[in-house]
Amino acid sequence: MRHVLLCAARHAAPGRRLGRFALDELGSGAGLPGRVYQQGHPLWIRDLAADTASLRSRAAARIGLHVAVGVPINTGARSIGALCVYGDRIEDPEDSLTTLLVGVAAQVGQYLERRRAEELTIELARTKDEFLALVTHELRNPLAVITSTASLLEEELDGLLDADQRHYVHTILRGAGRLSVMADDLLDLAQLESGHLAIDPAPSDLAAIVEHAVAAIAAQTAEKTLTVTVDTPPRLDLYADSNRLQQVADNLLSNAVKYTPAGGTITITATTDPDQAWITWTFTDTGIGIGIPAADRPHLFRRFYRASTALDRRIPGTGLGLVITRTIIERHGGTITLANHNAPGTTFHIRIPTEPHITTDP
Ligand code: ADP
Question: Which of 77, 191, 198, 347 has the least C-beta neighbours within 10 A?
Answer without folding.
Answer: 77
